[in-house]
Amino acid sequence: xxxxxxxxxxxxxxxxxxxxxxxxxxxxxxxTGAEVSFKDFEKFSPYYYHVDEAGDHVVExxxxxxxxxxxxxxxxxxxxNGVSENDDIPESVKNMFLQTQTIPEWxxxxxxxxxxxxxxxANLDSLISLRDYCLMGGYDFAxxxxxxxxxxxxxxxxxxxxxxxxxxxxxxxxxxxxxVHKKGYEFAIKTRLIHSYARLSIRKHYKNWDIKNCGxxxxxxxxxxxxxxxxxxxxxSLHKLGNTFSAHEENGLFHLWKYVGYLLGIPEKLLPDxxxxxxxxxxxxxxxxxxxxxxSVLLAHSLLNESLENPILKYKFQRRNLRYLHISxxxxxxxxxxxxxxxxxxxxxxxxFPVTKKLINRIYNKLVSRDQRIxxxxxGQLKVLGDYLSITNNSNxx
Length: 398
Prior knowledge:
It comes from Chryseobacterium takakiae. InterPro entries: Lcp-like, MPAB/Lcp_cat_dom. The chain has one domain. The mean pLDDT is 95. By secondary structure, the chain is mainly α. The chain has helices at residues 14-21, 24-32, 41-44, 53-63, 68-81, 91-100, 109-121, 124-138, 146-150, 153-156, 158-172, 183-205, 211-214, 220-240, 247-263, 275-286, 294-304, 306-309, 316-333, 336-341, 352-367, 370-392.
């Protein structure tokens, strides 16, 4: 780690104080019973300048020494067949794969199963939460988004970006997906190496990266915040949409994302075990993030307009209606100040759809068995993913 000393520099700023006293942060404190403070700030802040060196070394040894196709093929062999101490392969590959193939003592398969079931049984609410709260809300943190801007994610388009996020999320949240060599494990390893590839590319080609303020590109602390989005923020969103869950399911969700984080090379001490701890970790991290800037607004509007660009729905009026529904959910899930900073457009009757959905969820959860909801949710999510992949894998789609 570098010796740069980081301070909670925005703790007195209006955007930080408003978020935690009357916005989504206040809701998270009420939801989790968190006791937020800066007493552990110095313990966590060095990770703003810490990165996954094990993943970086694999990229340097494999991806930077041969064609991308050859490198990808080689890595897939390691993922599917495994790596042993005696293999005649680069040390970097051994180091990373021996870590990911080692099952941590704390791993509980029953909790993993319970976490996956919660993700599945929430059906389309899971996808609304990921898109309109987790992804959109993340755009409010200006420094977190700089790697996306620099690697030209906007040029790739929101449809493709959303498809990739959905592909990752669905594949790591199915039954037994995270067992070594299985599909979710494969997605975690590939995502880890994508992060390393992007970080090394930024270092190489973007000499003006502001390490002091933005931290290292795709640093460990930012990674923690991203995965708190998949656990804490996701859970809070399901709650706001009227879904209920047991303590076991809740613990399962955090356990699942703790293990995904472990496979991605995030230091274990940054991976929260429960919603209270996650909120306390998140509080400290948000104090180093400035509010949304012009890049944040571009990313937010790219995501909003994805519904208009996406050819899954055939007619323009269907696409416009879908955009309206997502805007309504965004205003319902995010606090007003965040929506204003991201310049989310005002629409009429914006509470009708999410409030109706919340009411229907409460009735549906009482009438339909848990097993039925899991089966239906799994089927529904796979259908949406299939639709996205059929579009983005089409060579004519740009």
